[in-house]
Amino acid sequence: MPINKIVDSFDEAVADIEDGATIMIGGFGIVAGAPSLLLEALGRKGSKDLTMVSNVTGFGKDVWSQLGFKFAEDPDILVRNGQIKKAIATAPVSTIYQNNFERLLRAGKVELETVSQGTLAERIRMAKAGIGGMYVSVGVGTVVEEGKETKIIDGKKYILELPLKADFALIKAHKGDRWGNLVYRRTSRTFNAVMAGAATVTIAEVEEIVELGELDADAIHTPGIYVDRVVVRPQVIEAEEIEYSAEVKESYQKYMDRKGN
Amino acid sequence: MPINKIVDSFDEAVADIEDGATIMIGGFGIVAGAPSLLLEALGRKGSKDLTMVSNVTGFGKDVWSQLGFKFAEDPDILVRNGQIKKAIATAPVSTIYQNNFERLLRAGKVELETVSQGTLAERIRMAKAGIGGMYVSVGVGTVVEEGKETKIIDGKKYILELPLKADFALIKAHKGDRWGNLVYRRTSRTFNAVMAGAATVTIAEVEEIVELGELDADAIHTPGIYVDRVVVRPQVIEAEEIEYSAEVKESYQKYMDRKGN
Amino acid sequence: MQEKATLDRQTIALRVAKEFQDGDVVNLGIGLPGLACNFVPAGREVLFHAEIGVLGFGEMTAPGEGDFELVNAGGQTVHEQPGMSCFDHAEAFVMIRGGHVDISVMGAFQVSEKGDLANYMVPAREIGVIGGAMDLASGTKKLIIAMNHTTKDGQPRILKQLAYPVTALNCVNLIVTDIAVIEVTDRGLVLKEVAPGWTPEEVQGLTEPKLIIDPDCHDIELM
Amino acid sequence: MQEKATLDRQTIALRVAKEFQDGDVVNLGIGLPGLACNFVPAGREVLFHAEIGVLGFGEMTAPGEGDFELVNAGGQTVHEQPGMSCFDHAEAFVMIRGGHVDISVMGAFQVSEKGDLANYMVPAREIGVIGGAMDLASGTKKLIIAMNHTTKDGQPRILKQLAYPVTALNCVNLIVTDIAVIEVTDRGLVLKEVAPGWTPEEVQGLTEPKLIIDPDCHDIELM
Question: Do residues B209 and B175 touch, judged by C-beta distance below 8 A?
Fold first, then answer.
């Protein structure tokens, strides 16, 4: 029987994400690389006590929609829904305004482990690659070193970093096929390609499904071996009208000012 | 001034490989993925006491030419020229016939470190990635474990493996541009892409040089940051006539029989 | 002793291929195991993986045809098929070491009753060819060994303990030989199938450890 | 105190960009450093790197234009240019940690006279944003800090010892501020340039550690 990893709906794709699961969320920070519709579906499902591994904890749909994004959910949806128990991230808060994660963190309602970005990427890759641990010098002499084993190799001090595995990885790609082969566009590859295969179940949200064989063998970024489910974004999405709060408007203005262009 | 990593000749490309250097040689085993003309140039230059990091130690031009290859040098050229002091390889000898490396090894003229293949790839990547060491369980309970540190992580035993860096990496790619961006074809990517950037100087032999911008940003396999020199194969090469020894003919027949197709 | 008919290389490969289920990712070793890509049961979709950096290739090409930049682990040219992907050597072993490969098929010199494997060096030779065997043996979910049941001079290769250097411990799941199919279980080695014309007792006679004869033990079926 | 004219953000970025030589791979941090991609000296070919996974992009796009799948570390859209390559996040940090990036430009809260850097957390805030700063600070060959010379209330940011949590030790090579250009050397901090209208003594007055005034110290040159 032909292999078919394509599932029909976003709700079906996340149906088995239970309370207490550890989930990786692809993307970097900008919503263009985030699995927005998978996050929206997981929001609807309402699974609680999740541990979330992602670069950022999210800015929120209202911020993004001001910037003109239609598919505008980022990890913030799980935070503001109260679905997160713990976040493992490199940039958990914003330097411009107080995001929902910071609010919950200050209220003692979520836990946080902050990781350096390159180490986060490599810890995820270790899980995918079956590596038991690795030594990096990044973070020596900083807070990152605290509580970790260190070792001198060739006269240089290193920190032992351990693999980071998840139950589910939610990622976003440009195109996918029924074997789960994926390609990404430009800077949306980022953590999406790293996380593919680092979880027991990897679920990819794609913009387009193509026939098997349409993706050139040399140009496939994520071979299907790492992908369990593929779900496609609808061509047309009803755009909700959003009421912007004064705070969001102010944050947006600060963001635009800071961009400097 | 425009960046230009293209050098005019193979001899120029290898001109600074001095005696005692550690060199990585790309490819897997089959000569199609090997940097044949760089190896030929290094053979002409005659640098001695080289430490060679490669998957195999080579079969030799005569074996390959029987199979119809025109650019038929593999690491064997350095072995039979007596340029190698030590080899680090996963398949140092042939199971079918005695290659030149085995002859020299049995005569006590070369040293050997045998490494498991996935560990070899990852040790090379560590050098490129600035990682100080990593724990793998591959080889536990075998000869590979001897003399190495071990560690129990999460109840499982691992071996500490260290990075493997070189002075030069000689690799083969399909196309390259003046920034050193490379693409490979099919199964020739192999160790070539892994070694790019793991040496102080990476030299790529390509079949074709293309204009900057011809390679799509999403399809480049090796970004130019890892590549120092690019040299192109001539379109036409004078094919030497080769006299095959009885031994080579016999090896070839054994090889063909074993292939089973 | 071995005057009876035994399975030839192609037939052993055919029997091995019967193990492949829809969607399995299967790595095939050099030599006999490599032949199994030609015998995928009709209607099944199996993804062949080679450590050189390719997933999802098809059957071998005819001799003299094919592209030498599309080869399996043994350097033999294979057909491209839709869905195939290529990658570098580190990624190929991320797949292997990371447990993403379902089945690995390789040859062996010896297998112990605990499923220990020796296939990288004959002691007399002193120089080993480790290749990717250690990674594959310790990383894949199911390891199938395809080999002749005995050495050329009739000595058992399935032993109580390995006499040759270890490739990996406790890794073999199934042994397919020219006269039998044997499963490695926690209870010991279970004889599941014998070559046509062979009895379980005759197979036991060429095997060092005690075999558990499966109540359902039957002739090797190829279709 | 700071009633004299100081360099604005664009001008600081312009001065930073003068450091970029032909063929340099340069990573630009979020905010002010990101602007430097717009000021590459004419005729130079510089490769900009962003940890999101891109090398060799061009200037920023006009506001409201551009492709949100081609952005810098700050999420700002940039122009594609010939030779650009994209990759994943692990690869982006192989480049950084592995020492393949020549220059990194980032902001800071504080820099010590030994070149220690604090830029991930204001202690009062208690929650840090480490991002890629630690990797970049410890992995790149030359680290340039672009920042205002003092805090909003006129306190020095260039200190004998860091008061804020450390990002990385001994990593800063050059500090470009709104009033000065200072090199971190084994001998100490060397004042190389001052903003037009400023004297070395005035810069020293806003700097905690003792500055070595370069004999050739001159006004900041932008062209």
Answer: yes
> Do C80 and A223 count as a contact with CB atoms less than 8 A apart?
no
Q: What is the C-alpha to C-alpha distance for residues D146 and D27, in angstroms, rounded to an integer?
A: 13
C51 annotated active-site: yes
Q: What is the pLDDT of residue D39?
A: 95
Locate the domains of chain D by residue range: 9-219
CB–CB contact D83 B197 (8 Å): no
- B156 beta partners: B153
Question: Residue B260's pLDDT band (boundaries 50, 70, 90)?
Answer: very low
Tokens linked to B157: 């035993």
Encoding tokens for residue B70?
A: 């025109």
The whole-number pLDDT of residue A254 equals 67
| Facing A137 at nearest CB: one of D132, D138, D166 | D138
D–C contact: 3+ Cβ pairs < 8 A: no
Question: What single string gives the DSSP state of each residue in B24-83?
Answer: EE-S-SSGGGS-HHHHHHHHHHT--SEEEE-SB----HHHHHHTT-SS---THHHHHTT-
D neighbour chains, 3+ CB pairs within 8 Å: A, B
The DSSP annotation for D178-189 comes to SSEEEEEETTEE
Q: How many CA atoms lie within 13 A of D98 on its CB side?
A: 24
The distance from CA B172 to its chain's CA centroid, rounded to whole angstroms, is 9
Nearest chain B residue (CA) to D70: B217
CB contacts, 8 Å: A69 with chain D? 68
Q: Active-site residue among C19, C51, C183, C193?
A: C51
Option in D80, D82, D95 nearest B225 (CB): D95
Q: Which residue has the tokens 């040219």?
A: C77
A103: CB partners within 8 A, 6+ apart: none
Using CA coordinates, name the residue in chain A closest to C45.
Answer: A2
pLDDT digit string, tens, across residues D77-121: 999 999 999 999 999 999 999 999 999 999 999 999 999 999 999
Q: Closest partner residue to D100 among B131, B178, B226, by Cβ?
A: B226
Give the closest-approach CA distance of D69 to chain A in angstroms. 5
Q: Which two tokens stand for residue C63?
A: 């001799």
Mean pLDDT value across chain C: 95
Chain D positions touching A117 (Cβ under 8 A) are: 51, 89, 93, 130-132, 134-135
Query: How much is the pLDDT for A105?
Result: 97
ipTM of the shown complex: 0.96
Residue B42, pLDDT > 80, answer yes
Q: Which residues of chain A have pLDDT under 50?
A: 260-261
C103 contacts in chain A (CB < 8 Å): none
Tens digit of each residue's pLDDT (9 = 90 or more) over D5-26: 999 999 999 999 999 999 999 9
Facing residue for A194 by CB, picked from D9, D80, D90: D90
Structure tokens that stand for A253 in this block: 């203005």
Asked if residue D65 lies in contact with residue D59, where contact means CB atoms within 8 angstroms, the answer is no
- Which of D51, D113, D183, D193 does the annotation list as catalytic? D51
Cβ contacts of D60 on chain A, cutoff 8 Å: 261
End-to-end CA distance of chain C: 28
Level-2 CATH architecture, domain B10-259 = 3-Layer(aba) Sandwich (3.40)
For D117-171, the pLDDT digits (tens) are 999 998 888 898 999 999 999 999 999 999 999 999 999 999 999 999 999 999 9
Classify domain D9-219 at the CATH superfamily level.
Answer: Glutaconate Coenzyme A-transferase (3.40.1080.10)
**What is the Cα–Cα distance from D10 to B75, expressed in whole angstroms?**
54
Give the chain B residue whose CA is nearest to the CA of D22. B1
Compute the distance between CA of residue B221 and CA of residue C177 in angstroms, rounded to an integer: 42
% of chain B with per-residue pLDDT over 70 = 91
Is B186 in contact with A218 (Cβ distance < 8 A)?
A: yes
Two structure tokens written together for B187: 């199964």
